[in-house]
Amino acid sequence: LQARREGVPSVRFDAAMAARAAERLALAARLRLALERGEFELHFQPIRDIGDGRIVSLEALIRWSPDNAGYVPPSQFIPLCEESGLIVPLGEWALAEAARCHGLLAERGRGEVAIAVNVSAVQFLSETLPQSLRALRETHALPRGALQIELTESAVLRSPESARTTMNELREQGVCISIDDFGTGFSSMAYLKDLPLDFLKVDRTFVAGVDSEERNAAICRALIELGHGLGLKIIAEGVESAEQLDWLRKHGCDQAQGYYFGAPGPLADLLRAW
Ligand code: C2E
Ligand code: MG
Ligand code: MG
Ligand code: MG
């Protein structure tokens, strides 16, 4: 209290906080090393057209397997990478790996299937994204539509004007744009109306009870209607049952992904089971 009155910052820095900070620093350094050592990989989850069941795209989901001892889920390292800035080179790596994998798809006669890459706000707003994508498309001779990006509402809302500029450049290159986890952030109608988007991905928290809970059904019905009204396609995330899929089909949802169709896995496994 005395310190605050005298204008000295009154931050209390106790032993536990110091330990936590040290742990995070160590993990950030370890993640940097992991990128150098090539310990990250992409897994892929199919996204299917609800009408005909065909796989229309694959979502690329990053996996870290330190010392080949199982996978650490992205929720445990992506936020730290965003804080430390490692997300920019890591995101570049993910895009390059997705581009390489699209080449493998094309070799197997699946070149019409797009790969959707999650892009963090920091990376999206760094303004190097259109240039990186153009370089990758040239290096890997990717057709238009080969890559898509998934953004969260927060990435867009942080700076709607620069988001629009970047999106227009991506659109010109034939890169489609999805808003991920739609409905969980500050869903602003203003940006939806004005930005050049292609897909809304309805978050799985709403999809989970869509066939059994009226409140989730009401939200899903509204989001499908809203997206369609704006000329967007709707993708349902986290579909786990035939009942959920039936509900989504009846209500005009366009595409779906989830454990019902298959968990994310290595591209080789997916190609084998296709
Ligand atoms: P997301 O983009 O919303 O990805 C969907 C998440 O739902 C994935 O979790 C996926 O494994 C999981 N999922 C898919 N189907 C089902 C289902 O039927 N039920 C349930 N309960 N879950 C399902 P994952 O792989 O742990 O990724 C979590 C988040 O990490 C992603 O959410 C995305 O925000 C982020 N992330 C993943 N890869 C990358 C990346 O390369 N770059 C960036 N910036 N973020 C990434
Ligand atoms: Mg995603
Ligand atoms: Mg999502
Ligand atoms: Mg989600």
TrEMBL record:
The lineage of its organism: Bacteria, Pseudomonadati, Pseudomonadota, Gammaproteobacteria, Lysobacterales. The chain holds residues 705 to 978 of 978 of the full protein. This is EAL domain-containing protein. Residues 24-274 form the EAL domain.
